[in-house]
Design a protein that fits this description.
The chain has 12 helices and 20 strands. The chain is of the alpha/beta class and about 475 residues long. The protein folds into 2 domains: about 130 residues, 3-Layer(aba) Sandwich (Leucine Aminopeptidase, subunit E, domain 1); about 300 residues, Aminopeptidase (3-Layer(aba) Sandwich), CATH 3.40.630.10. The strands form 4 sheets. Strands 7, 8, 9, 10, 11, 14, 15, 16 and 18 form a 9-stranded mixed β-sheet that branches. A 6-stranded mixed β-sheet has the order 1-6-5-2-4-3. Helix 2 links the parallel strand 5 and strand 6. Helix 1 runs parallel beside helix 2, helix 6 packs antiparallel against helix 8 and helix 10 packs across helix 12. The longest helix is centred in the N-terminal third of the chain and has 26 residues. It is globular.
Length: about 475
């Protein structure tokens, strides 16, 4: 069985005139997202709210047009933009339209017919190039988000550590200047990646470390070398500390942080951004067997730090620790950012639409929240409470994997030990990485959350 990666999205262009014989969509101030059919044409309500609400409108439009296309309707439309359609509204409309129609399904049934293209028609000739550039950027962000969703949605009988790493490397090979290396289990053992090997030791499908390197021909000003680290757990049973059956099927998406890093790296390189960036994705399957790691084990990470294992279902921080240590010891980074579906505590704290942000500096925290605002992804900064720092220490090892206390915070404090006091941010996306229903441009399944923020973060270093 093969996974349909990447998923095709509706094409969007901007022009100063409609196409002959193509039906039109008129935007009105009716209720946000309200779609009304008139012959082959449609009207779409965009309301009177903030520009970001046009994401909802775009997603609603494409869902309605897809349904009509599957019933035999047209597959191309011209969207007549009103004078109020500024750059922010066009970006939001394109993102919503491209992602609102996203679907991932492996089936023997007929694939539903969907619309192929939208042309956004601008009345002001002098504004066409500006809006076309914004539409193109928004579609690039949507494409990255969709690819991240594809990787996370792929079922784990297909997606093992080798598949995830090699699929990323295959797509990286198509982008000039982006280099990919897949390190196998022998290399990991030879170089002391005890955390990744411990977590992956219970599976018959061995772990991998994906290393993506983007070194542009020229670097902007004082732009830093940024290392992005994404959790790549291709399936998580919880190991010996096994999860309950209810909801375990969603653990195919437990590598959503790694998917975000992979998709972001592809887009950063495609855009030829003048910032040096390295992406690391430790890939492993956390399984149950006679060779699985156990509570009470002591694991030696890359660089020598040891960790007392207290819960094998907290495997994400164990593989991230190896990758962070590898980055600080060998890659000479200036900034570290890790992304992971790490703790259920973050879902309780922030719900399902907001990511948790921990940062060692105010500057990096502000940069990430600003990037998230531009990407329409919401982050809430969480505290690195020093009152709990001592709890991460172990009596029989250097560190304790899961100390008592607030789970999201102690997980971040654990990871901080592997960052060599560099500017560092930890993004916990356990809540918003998955969805059970349509929400704006989000559809059921993996959401691709954090992908766009990472791209906008790197973009921010070019200014």
């Amino acid at each position: 069985m093969r996974s349909p990666v990447p998923t095709a999205l509706v094409e969007v262009e901007v022009a100063d005139a409609p196409r002959r014989g193509v039906p039109s969509v008129v935007l009105t101030t009716a209720e946000l997202g309200e779609t009304t059919r008139a012959g082959d044409g449609w009207s779409l309500g965009v309301g009177t709210g903030a520009p970001s609400t046009w994401r909802t409108a775009g997603a609603s439009l494409v869902r309605a047009l897809d349904e009509a296309a599957d019933a035999g309707g047209p597959r191309s439309y011209d969207v007549l933009l009103p004078e109020s359609a500024d750059a922010d509204r066009v970006r939001a409309l394109v993102l919503g339209a491209a992602l609102g129609g996203y679907r991932f399904k492996l089936s023997a049934e007929r694939t539903p017919t969907r619309i192929r293209s939208l042309r956004l028609v601008v009345g002001d000739l002098g504004y066409v190039d500006v809006l076309a550039a914004e539409a193109r950027r928004a579609h690039e962000l949507a494409t990255a988000t969709a690819f991240s969703r594809d990787l996370a949605n792929t079922p784990s009988n297909i997606k093992d550590p080798q598949w995830l790493a090699s699929t990323a490397a295959k797509h990286a090979a198509k982008v000039p200047g982006l280099h990919a290396v897949v390190h196998d289990e022998k290399w990991l053992a030879d170089h002391g990646f005890g955390g990744v090997l411990a977590v992956g030791g219970g599976s018959a499908r061995p772990p991998r470390l994906l290393e993506l390197s983007w070194s542009p021909r020229s670097v902007a000003g004082h732009a830093p070398h940024v290392v992005l680290v994404g959790k790549g757990i291709t399936f998580d049973t919880g190991g010996i500390s096994i999860k309950p059956a209810d909801g375990m099927h969603l653990m195919r998406t437990d590598m959503s942080g790694g998917a975000a890093v992979i998709a972001a790296m592809l887009t950063i390189a495609t855009r030829d951004l003048p910032v040096r960036v390295t992406g690391l994705v430790p890939c492993a399957e956390n399984h149950v067997s006679g060779s699985a790691y156990r509570p009470g084990d002591v694991v030696r990470h890359y660089g020598g730090t040891t960790t007392e294992i207290t819960n094998t279902d907290a495997e994400g921080r164990i593989v991230l620790a190896d990758a962070l240590a590898y980055a600080t010891h060998t890659l000479n980074p200036d900034v570290l950012v890790d992304v992971a579906t790490l703790t259920g505590a973050m879902k309780v704290s922030l719900g399902l639409r907001t990511g948790g942000l921990f940062a060692s500096t105010d500057e990096l925290a502000t940069r990430i929240t600003t990037a998230g605002t531009r990407a329409w992804e919401t982050w809430w900064r969480m505290p690195l409470l020093e009152d709990h720092a001592d709890a991460v220490k172990s009596d029989i090892a250097d560190l304790r994997q899961c100390p008592p206390g607030p789970g999201g915070i102690t997980a971040a404090l654990f990871l901080r030990n592997f960052t060599a006091n560099l500017p560092w941010a930890h993004l916990d996306i356990a809540g918003p990485a998955r969805s059970e229903k349509n929400l704006d441009e989000v559809v059921p399944g993996a959401t691709g959350f954090a992908t766009r923020t990472l791209i906008e973060l790197i973009e921010s270093y070019t200014h």
